[in-house]
Design goal:
- The protein is an alpha/beta fold.
- The chain contains 27 helices and 25 strands.
- It is globular and about 75 Å long.
- It starts with 27 loop residues before the first helix and ends in a 5-residue tail after the last strand.
- The relative contact order is 0.09.
């Protein structure tokens, strides 16, 4: 993988003489107090401004400030006019626009497309403080406020919409967000390298339309092949049709081996002569001297908009081109223009990560919010981010698409320094660190055993269908970090709230013992997601046997520690590839294991995720997409999604009429009855269920179970968990 300039190696902009601000200004009065006549960069965000590294605009703002730029923040402006976008004046360099830490549509709507009542990233949790698709709306208002000022969009909302994407809320394929936002550049992924380079080059009077060579960015060009670039049609790379033999993702190609591959058959020679007049470039087998000027042309927006198979194919190509070590540029036509995606950014080094997290954050909300409560801040104010990225590759998750598969870890000293800063400076600290993690709890310092393999690999997951033999799974650095952190003076407990990869954890009994003995607050939440092979394969998650193995270890070490602790499993309803029979088997597993769900999670197709392509196309995009075959079951529509959720809440009387109807249609009426072997009873409590008349089918309403006692069992829920007979405990929202 090529090196990148150190993030802090740029010569500082002249305004560095003003020094660091106590908090980035949100008003002209604050700018006056700092002695500023203008802002060099203004960041517009859909979140409340909290000066904490867990919030994207604070991190980017402080980073740009460290480069010498004067940075202002416009938080949750009134989008009905351009007035709020003028409050800090015209920026000298550019507007940076983001929807915030969450996609604005995911933030506002549930998986059933219902409007959420509140917004965790807003003061007092007030809903409705940002528009739908706010990156588009904010960008348009910035353009109205000050014509001619460059607009750079970024954050997860822009990142996941960088090409034509399926939009769950409108049930159609929308064009790249850079088109709708009319932005000059789109920054995707973690944006530190891109934003710093953009700022310095604009400060050096380079026109924004000439910033076309920055990794991790997308821009618009006139449709057509760019001079000096070799273009490959994606459908010739992975044509929807006959299945080709799988390509070894670890095959290290040289120029000589590529020539050998070309000469294998006479047919290949003829095809080469007919179709290619320049250097031959084969997918997955790119000669290093050519890759920097090679681009894959994806099917045009007009094609993927109406052809779901081509959409699935496009998604597959995009996900295969995400390794910074070997990814090619991608281009997609949108009408008379092309959306051009440069390869992903080079991950930050550990020293760079340390320096980013060591910037002078106040770690509290901006003073303009006074005593107002911001729920998202309350959730993370005593937590520490130790790494970023995820190589799990879960198809329903957006972390990999945004942060990448290569783990970027901070140093132990940097993390300990932040823990001490929380202890010494954060108001309300009681001695408990609520989390020491990141996108996952236990990928800290895990990576490929060699850089050569890492830079050439195109696997979508390092842990599916099994843990890769080339992956270093040593948890020793993480164990050492845990032990050092919990021994700090004034630290009573270090909890782990991030998502645990238990398929990795079982490979390190010492880690599981350390975790269970010292870092579980009574409940540990993990996500098997399902019990059945079909949906698990489409999720790229391990089988339920791995969960059982971890459960045995968890219970063993809890008992040795003399602690009564519980595992709280999460499951997803209505994921692509899930049948009614799969959900029934999951419900039976839950009942047999004594679990009752207080709240359930229904699958939500987020833009650009692999599972979203499955949802839209009905094709398994983890394998070669074919016109004929490769079809999977996709639970769509309110009724089927409601049924799948009802299976997870089999114990809720409101769901019994729906479940009875389904079980009878499935030929499983044997599961309807009043014994222990039955899933649901044949009677219906008065005033419950779709029928609601209290018809009992020969039984009394509110009847207890057959042993004369109300059934007891463990329960789990999305944000709060409760075990039978135990007090409720707050938990961290899953990503």
């Amino acid at each position: 993988m090529q090196a990148a300039p150190d993030l802090f190696s740029y010569r500082k902009f002249w305004a560095h003489r003003f020094g660091a601000a106590p908090e980035l200004p949100m008003s002209r009065e604050e700018m006056d107090n700092l002695g500023w006549d203008s802002c060099d960069i203004i960041l517009v965000t859909g979140d409340a401004y909290i000066d904490h590294p867990s919030f994207g605009m604070a991190l980017i703002g402080r980073l740009l400030e460290s480069q010498g730029f004067r940075v202002g923040i416009i938080s949750q402006p009134d989008w009905n006019s351009a007035e709020d976008f003028k409050q800090l004046g015209q920026p000298n360099l550019f507007f940076g626009v983001t929807g915030g830490n969450m996609d604005s549509m995911v933030n506002r709507y549930t998986s059933d497309r219902r409007i959420r009542r509140n917004d965790a990233y807003t003061a007092d949790g007030e809903g409705g403080k940002r528009p739908d698709r706010c990156v588009v709306v904010y960008s348009q208002r910035c353009r109205e406020a000050f014509k001619g000022v460059p607009i750079i969009i970024g954050g997860i909302e822009a990142s996941l919409r960088r090409i034509a994407h399926f939009d769950y809320w409108s049930e159609k394929v929308r064009r790249s967000v850079i088109m709708d936002a009319k932005a000059d550049l789109l920054v995707y992924g973690n944006g530190e390298r891109q934003v710093v380079e953009i700022a310095h080059r604009l400060a050096a009077n380079e026109p924004v339309n000439e910033l076309t060579d920055i990794r991790g960015t997308a821009f618009l060009t006139k449709h057509g092949q760019r001079e000096g670039w070799w273009e490959k049609d994606s459908t010739s790379v992975d044509t929807p049709g006959k299945v080709n033999p799988p390509i070894d993702p670890y095959l290290m190609q040289t120029e000589a081996s590529c020539e050998t591959e070309k000469a294998k058959t006479e047919a290949d020679k003829k095809e080469t002569a007919q179709k290619e007049t320049t250097n031959v470039i084969r997918f997955h087998k790119i000669m290093p001297k050519d890759s920097s000027k090679s681009v894959i042309r994806l099917p045009a927006y007009g094609e993927v908009k109406t052809d779901s198979v081509l959409y699935a194919h496009t998604s597959r190509i995009l996900h295969l081109e995400t390794n910074p070590g070997n990814a090619l540029a991608l281009v997609q036509q949108h009408g008379e223009r092309d959306v051009w995606l440069n390869p992903p950014p080079i991950p930050l080094t550990t020293p760079e990560m340390d320096a980013v997290f060591d910037l002078p954050y106040s770690r509290v909300a901006h003073t303009q919010y006074g005593d107002k409560n911001i729920p998202a801040y309350e959730m993370i104010r005593f937590s520490v981010n130790i790494m970023r990225g995820c190589f799990g590759g879960c198809t329903f998750c957006s972390i990999t698409e945004h942060e990448g598969r290569i783990i970027q870890s901070r140093s132990e000293d940097s993390i300990i320094k932040e823990v001490e800063a929380i202890r010494d400076t954060t108001p309300g600290f009681t001695g408990v660190i609520s989390d020491l993690g990141g996108p996952t709890a236990n990928m800290y310092r895990l990576a490929c055993k060699t850089k050569e393999i890492e830079s050439s690999c195109r696997r979508l997951s390092c842990v599916f269908p099994g843990v890769c033999k080339n992956l270093n799974t040593d948890h020793t650095p993480l164990i050492k970090l845990y032990r050092r952190a919990r021994q700090l003076p004034g630290i009573k407990k270090i909890l782990i709230a991030s998502g645990l990869r238990y398929d990795l954890a079982v490979l390190s009994p010492e880690y599981v013992k350390e975790l269970v003995t010292h870092h579980v607050g009574g409940y540990l939440k993990i996500a098997p997601e399902h019990t059945e092979e079909g949906p698990l394969d489409r999720m790229m998650k391990p089988g339920i046997g791995t969960y059982d193995k971890f459960k045995q270890m968890f219970e063993k070490y809890s008992k040795e520690a003399g602690k009564e602790q519980y595992l709280i499993p999460y499951f997803i309803a209505a994921h692509p590839g899930t049948t009614n029979e799969d959900m029934l088997n999951l419900a039976l597993w839950l009942k047999n294991n004594g679990f009752k769900a207080d709240q359930v999670q229904a699958y939500l197709p987020s833009p650009m995720a692999a599972a979203t392509a499955m949802y839209h196309s009905g094709k398994d995009t983890l394998r070669k997409v074919r016109r004929q075959g490769g079809d999977i079951t996709v639970p769509k529509g309110i009724k089927i999604r409601r049924l799948h959720k009802a299976f997870l809440r089999y114990h809720d009387a409101e769901n019994w009429p729906l479940l009875r109807e389904a079980l009878q249609k499935m030929g499983r009426a044997d599961l309807i009855g009043n014994g222990k072997k039955h899933l649901i009873p044949s009677w219906q409590p008065a005033g419950t269920g779709d029928r609601g008349e209290g018809k009992r089918m020969g039984q009394k309403a509110n009847r207890p179970t057959s042993n004369g006692q109300q059934q007891k069992g463990k329960s789990f829920r999305t944000q709060h968990v409760r075990s039978s007979g135990k007090p409720k405990a707050a938990g961290r929202k899953r990503r």
